[in-house]
Structures are given as structure tokens and as C-alpha cells.
Amino acid sequence: MPPYPKLTGSQVIAIRAAIMVSFLPWTGLLYLLAIVDGAMERARRKVGGGRESSTLYHRSKYFQATLATVTTTVYLWRPGDVDPLLVVVPATLACAALARFQAKYYKKYA
Question: For 80-107, how does the pLDDT look when each residue is reduced to its tens digit (9 = 90+)?
């Protein structure tokens, strides 16, 4: 039996959107940690003369936006029951890792 037996499609989407909003503080914390860690790696790279990779920066930026959009769309619009922990948590961790790469491979001399 589905978890929402008598709900309309828009009610299910509203419930799932509320669940996504409830994950925002955790997502924000992970993003903050990832960006701080990536900025620290960038500072180490600037001092140590490490290599700069604009390709990694741009790919992580574009893939991060694509991953967040596709994950949200699939989670909201998929018919049937979906465990949010199996969808939102891996996508959030992947987006945070991509944000870290984005901060890490930002230009050395900006």
C-alpha cells in the first residue's frame, strides 16, 4: 500500500517539497564546511605553487547545478513512495563535494 493512498498528486508534491525544505539546514552546513575546506586548499595551492585547473572548476560548477536540479525534479515528480534519505542525502553529499572542488580549483590569482 502506498504511503499516500488518498492524496492527490499536488499534495504529494507539496509534502515532498516540505521534506526537501527540512533538509536545507543540513545542506547549508555541509556546503559551508565544503567551501571553507576548499578555500583552505586553494590558499595552500596559492602559497605552494600548485597547478590551477579551470576545467575542474567549471565542470564541478556545472555538474553541481545539474545534479541538484535533476535530483530535486526526480524526487518531486517520481510516482510511488521514495525514501528521502536515499535520494537527498547522497545528492547533498555529492553537491557539497563538488562545491569543495569548485572552491579548491578557483583561480589562484583573482
Answer: 888 999 999 999 999 999 999 999 888 8
